[in-house]
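Work Package 3 (structural annotation) set out to generate three-dimensional models for the target panel prioritized at the project kickoff. During this period the team completed the workflow that converts sequence records into discrete structure tokens, so that structures can be stored uniformly alongside our sequence database. As a representative example, we reproduce one entry of 69 residues exactly as it appears in the project archive.
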Amino acid sequence: MGNPVLRLMKTVWVYLNQPLFQDETVMNPFKFSKTYSKQLLERCFTKEHEAEKQRIFLERCWSRSCKTL
């Protein structure tokens, strides 16, 4: 899970470094925290999904190569 203080500092850093005066800018820190958490969860899910697809692809390739030997 990680250190909660470091996780909070990372969130604050991302909040302070977001682009100003753009549509996706969130000025409310609490709303930003919820939005950031949701985006982080979506990125992690996508990474896990891509890793799982890669693992399945490699297993299929490996099983086919073993059958041809």
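Residues 19 and 25 are 6 Å apart (CA to CA).
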